[in-house]
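FYI - complex with 5-O-phosphono-beta-D-ribofuranosylamine, inputs then prediction.
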Amino acid sequence: MSSARRMPIGVLVSGNGSNLQALIDEQEAGRLPVEIRAVVCNKPGVYALERAAKHHLPALVLPNRQYATREEHEGAICRALEAQQVQLVVLAGYMRLLTPFFVRRYKNRIINLHPALLPAFPGTDSIRRAFEGGVKVTGVTVHFVDEGEDTGPIILQQALPIEGADTVETLEAKVHALEHRLLPQAVRLFAEGKLRLEGRRVLISS
Ligand code: GRF
């Protein structure tokens, strides 16, 4: 795919980066019309950085505590993304809430991934909370980010049954495998201009 047709994106990470890897794999296979122009990480030393390095992606570590305020931290992130003309910001396991400053700057151009069926189990540790809460169905949500926590318009959602034989570990594995499919799918739909917001509804054109 010629680079002219690829949308410049930035990916924010804080950890293992398996969802970053899913994006890289799809992009390298020619199935994702994006170019990952910036990987921004707020945690030094995490595996996501090694993944970026292996694939020669430009990565930047901006630790939270090097900045006096969240806005200053996000200002540094914005500058890095703007320098690369990023048009879509993907939160792939980015474990820090964004302030309205950042959300407004990239209004309706930030996608987040959540390991549960929102609005159920927002926040952290959702897989365990769903499992221990005894629900029979959980899943994965990909949504636009608004100024709340895990409250933005839902782009894609897919359910997973929780079986009697499941453990937290087997459920985690199933949720992560599903995340690795849904996140690239949502990014592809965005990059192809197929998502349209109507109030809180995200309409997908074919
Ligand atoms: C994913 O489960 C995502 O839903 C959550 O954090 C996890 C990140 O995993 N927000 P990874 O760093 O992409 O492997």
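The first helix runs from residue 18 to 28. Residues 141 and 157 are 4 Å apart (CA to CA).
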